[in-house]
Amino acid sequence: MTERAKNLLASMKLSEREGVLVYNPSNMFYLSGYLGEGLVLITHQCCAIVTDFRYTEQAENEAPGFEVHMTGTGRCHEAIVGELCRQADIDTLYYEDDYVTVRTFEACRKHIPDVEWKSVGGAVEALREVKDENELSLIAQACKLTGEAFERLLPNIKEGMTEKELALMLNFDMLTNGAGGLAFSTIAAAGANGSLPHAVPGDYKLRKGDMITFDFGARVGNYCADMTRTVALGNPSDEMRKVYQIVKDAQQMAQDAVMAGKCCRDIDAIARDYIYSKGYEGRFGHGLGHSLGIDIHENPRFNQTCTSILKVGQVMTVEPGIYLPGVGGVRIENSVVVREDGCEALTLPTRELIIL
Questions:
Q1: Cα–Cα distance, 280 to 322 (Å, whole number)
Q2: What pLDDT shows up at residue 30?
Q3: pTM here?
Q4: Across the chain, which distance is largest between two alpha carbons, in Å?
Q5: How far apart are CA 211 and CA 213, in angstroms?
Q6: Are 354 and 339 in contact (CB under 8 A)?
Q7: How far, in Å, CA of 276 to CA of 267, rounded?
Q8: CB within 8 A of 145, min separation 6: which ones?
Q9: What is the pLDDT of residue 1?
Q10: How many CB atoms neighbour CB 53 within 10 A?
Q11: 292 with 335: CB under 8 angstroms?
Q12: pLDDT for 156
């Protein structure tokens, strides 16, 4: 049994007759180290991975602290869990009601009939909020790799290139320089498309004066980086220069306020109130940031409603933006580690306006 599995049982105060059934791949990986398909069962008596022939060897290699059970004809995942639960005399199973489909839950109730079903209630995700030193090291590596890809891209950005080309160049650079994958689909949004916070790179061709927003991240050891920078191709308009400075100042003010013990919504308010005071109320419509790790979006969040208190070892993004429909947008994002007396920036490229 892994320490994380023990921590889960302890944090939930589970008895010998209670267990947790995990389907969410991110939670499976966190608890076991296994990256394949299937499910994980954790009880005091046994920790098991149930999967099919394609993944059994992988599971044995990645999760040495877990039993590996293989499905077969007439013996589905849930049937095997039912057998394991009967052997351990389990009478209560906690499951991920925010992840499991209706069809899967019906299979659970069919093949594991003699247990009470309860929601796990985000207990695994709660453990994932504070990162250990190995997790922080992997995220820092991912952030470094991401920043270096951005800096290598800058000299190659030219008028007439498409957003798709820019995104592909970033992706290729990250993957050829050590990334295990992408943290999420790369955003490259130029000109008026910059007003779309989650724009999809298209065939728009760069023009002089365009602002270009890049939001992207590498994945290292299955941990994510998240970085946003907005640059100008040639001299931007006076308004976009002004917007850039406001966003930069808001980002710096909020980042400077991040430290253990602070309330998440208070950090959001620092950037939001400043942007609104400069005449752009309603043009910053998303939360200031979020935690990240195995998933690109984790809890807690910097938004107007999150009352979570920051803890040492959490990794948060600080990413204010201003979006002007038909004109463009600016977003600047750093990923930071929460420390006792402040925060440590993992995103290293300059936040000054770069004019290419």
A1: 7
A2: 98
A3: 0.96
A4: 71
A5: 7
A6: no
A7: 15
A8: 174, 177, 178, 179, 218, 220, 225
A9: 84
A10: 9
A11: yes
A12: 98
How does pLDDT run across 106-154, given as a tens digit for each residue?
999 999 999 999 999 999 999 999 999 999 999 999 999 999 999 999 9
Q: Which residues are within 8 A (CB) of 111 and not within 5 positions of it... i.e. 6 or more apart?
A: 76, 78, 79, 81, 82
Q: Tell me if 158 sits within 8 A of 183, measured CB to CB.
A: no
Determine the pLDDT at residue 183: 98
In this structure, what token pair is assigned to residue 222? 């299955």
d(CA 49, CA 35): 11
Per the structure block, which two tokens stand in for 354?
A: 């770069």
Residue 299 burial (CB count, 10 A): 16
Rounded to an integer, what distance in angstroms lies between the CA atom of residue 284 and that of residue 250?
Answer: 11
Q: Which among 211, 220, 216, 218 has a CA at the least distance from the CA of 200?
A: 216
Spans in the chain with pLDDT lower than 70: none
How far is the C-alpha of 182 from the C-alpha of 40, rounded, in Å? 25
Ordered alpha helix ranges (H), the chain: 3-12, 25-32, 56-62, 77-87, 102-111, 123-128, 133-153, 163-176, 238-257, 264-275
What strands, in cross-sheet order, belong to the sheet with 342-345? 298-302, 289-291, 315-318, 334-339, 342-345
Tell me, what's the pLDDT at 46? 93
C-alpha span between 215 and 227 (Å, rounded): 6
Q: For residues 331 and 319, is the Cβ–Cβ distance under 8 A? A: yes
Spell out the residues 6+ positions from residue 183 whose beta carbon is closer than 8 angstroms to its own.
142, 216, 217, 218, 219, 224, 225, 226, 292, 296
Q: Give yes or no for a contact between 338 and 311, defined as CB atoms under 8 angstroms apart.
A: yes
Q: State the DSSP code for 204.
A: P
